[in-house]
Amino acid sequence: MSAYLLTHLRHVDLAVPDYDKQLDFYAGVWGLTKVVEDSGIAFLAAEGSPEQYVVRLRKAEEKRLDLVSYGAGSAEDVDTLAEQLLAGGIQLISRPGKVDTPGGGYGFRFFDIDGRTIEVSADVDVRQHRRIEEKESIPVKLSHVVLNSPDLDATREWYERHLGFRHSDTLSSPYVGDVMHFMRISNQHHSMAIAKGPHTSLHHVSFEMRGLDEYMRGSGRVMRAGVQKIWGPGRHLAGDNTFTYFLDPHGNTVEYTTELECLDEDTWHPHVYDFSQPEVTDQWGTANPMNELVAKESFNDVDRGVFVAPPV
């Protein structure tokens, strides 16, 4: 790509069999705000974010990742990206046009190399949002999404070539090789990461908290509510962000984080970190050790939505 057309991560959309339980989780203990609900679809916003919503839940018989949505700077950029994808032989699900979800806008959808549905949009109305106050332990915004791929390097190369993602860092090990590439579309260390997994699936969705105190208060609230904690609290080396990982009611991993590193893109050079070293996975040494359970839960279930566009 000759230009960087994507600006930020907008929302992650999930299909869930037990819709009511998931809605209670995200709009309850997790701290999002239900803004629209209609016929088994709910749109949930983060109070500190100008995005109309950061999570969409859809009632379905099978669990799947419906789509991942990114913003573009303008309608012209949306058209340019669609033309570039078509020229590159990428299958479009829809051509650029009106977006019929809260906030409207102009966008289109397509499949990535692993068969996930990706949406790109511009001119979406800004949601009335507010400053999150001190000690208020609810998400400010959607931070990043991590996706499992059976072919780590092929997926990284596809996102670099077709969507303009830049490589920030890699986690590797002398025993198993590369396991994660951190990718960015701004100076934020990563808006997406690609994890090596046995199948295509969602690895985790991360939500940004106001600061360290709010991150710890939120982590504690979710723990006290009896939600299964997988890993944390701790602080990663790559991205320098905090982490506490939980399972939502259908086994999707969700994370509270804060203080994700912002890079000087003119001077940044990617690192390869040896994740077998404990200080790489957790600088603080406060989290439970990375083990097979943490990895297994992060693999998630096989995504049944590969190369199948969501109905809405």
Automatic annotation (TrEMBL):
Instruction: Enumerate the Gene3D superfamilies for this protein.
Output: 2,3-Dihydroxybiphenyl 1,2-Dioxygenase, domain 1
Taxonomy, superkingdom: Bacteria
Query: Boundaries of each VOC domain copy?
Result: 8-123, 141-259
* Pfam families, alphabetized: Glyoxalase
Q: Where is the signal peptide?
A: none
Question: PANTHER family under this entry?
Answer: GLYOXALASE FAMILY PROTEIN, METALLOTHIOL TRANSFERASE FOSB
Record protein name field = Oxidoreductase
